[in-house]
Write a structure and sequence with these properties.
This protein has 284 residues and is of the alpha/beta class. The chain has ten helices and eight strands. An eight-stranded mixed sheet has the order 1-2-4-3-5-8-6-7, with helices on both faces. Helix 8 packs across helix 10. The protein is globular. The relative contact order is 0.18.
Length: 284
């Protein structure tokens, strides 16, 4: 599907209930967009290329295995460097307050995701947003669900306590009959599916808990909160923050292979969690 560009935001319209968001992979440094003065400016290296790889691999996988006609996820990418715009923050924290161009780009980015989520829910009854990032502080990819490290340290009975459902980004899936523990670190969790593709993931069935509550872990930020937790403007939407490991993103060949693995993990998770596009699979 062809991409549209507006206000430094790339958008590809999809037709399946998956939205890929890429907020920190942009390279553009236009002088007309004022630099941010506070917050994190670090670029998530090669996540824009990884988003393209996942988009293509997921489209191909579903076309080959599901019988769907030209399936494609929605894709929204911020093309501006993070020093200009951080599309994983509220607008007041995302850009220079006196820069209309940056504010317009922020609005465009989330308007595109909003519209994609609404369209997917109207067509399929649900939507899942995967917010694609990169981190380098651990070898495993991190999966964030707006659940703090201290909660993950506890047993499944604590994680599954009803108090955590409204603050997690997976409430829409719990309301479909799943438990948080099964979704986050069960054998059919996204982490478990990624591990089956040969990539370490946390949390997962193999790596269910951190070593301590002091361990660095990106458990979710604005986008995950916006589409999975807070507004309830999208009650049939859930969200995951994907903090991908750095080594698989280090070469073009690695990015292509990692894109295939992430696409397979996302497809497997969506099938098991939503029974889409067919019956759930049996865990390996």
């Amino acid at each position: 599907k062809s991409a549209t560009m507006a206000n430094y935001i790339e958008y590809r319209r999809g037709n399946i209930p998956v939205v890929l968001a890429c907020p920190h992979g942009g390279y553009e440094h236009p002088s007309s967009v004022l630099d941010r003065t506070q917050g994190c400016f670090e670029h998530d290296h090669h996540t824009a290329e990884l988003a393209d790889a996942v988009h293509g691999a997921l489209s191909q996988r579903l076309a080959e295995h599901s019988g769907l006609d030209k399936p494609a996820p929605y894709l929204v990418k911020n093309l501006l460097h993070r020093s200009k715009l951080d599309c994983n923050r509220k607008r007041e924290d995302a850009c220079h307050p006196s820069c209309p161009l940056a504010c317009a780009a922020h609005t465009e980015y989330f308007d595109r995701i909003d519209a994609s989520v609404r369209e997917a829910i109207a067509a399929h009854g649900f939507c899942h947003v995967f917010d694609l990032h990169g981190q380098s502080h651990r070898h495993a990819s991190e999966l964030g669900y707006c659940i703090r490290t201290s909660v993950l340290l506890g047993p499944d009975s604590d994680l599954d306590h009803p108090e955590h459902v409204p603050t997690s980004s997976l409430g829409a899936l719990v309301h479909r009959g799943h438990t948080l523990s099964s979704l986050i670190r069960g054998p059919c969790s996204l982490g478990a599916h990624l591990e089956r593709q040969g990539h370490q993931a946390f949390p997962s069935h193999a790596h269910p808990q951190p070593a301590s509550d002091k361990e660095m872990y990106f458990w979710g930020a604005y986008t995950t909160w916006r589409y999975g937790t807070a507004s309830r403007a999208f009650p049939a939407c859930a969200a995951t923050q994907l903090e991908t490991a750095s080594v698989p993103r280090s070469t073009p060949e690695g990015i292509a292979a990692f894109g295939v693995a992430l696409a397979a993990a996302i497809a497997g998770f969506v099938q098991d969690a939503y029974a889409w596009p067919g019956p759930a699979s049996e865990p390996a």
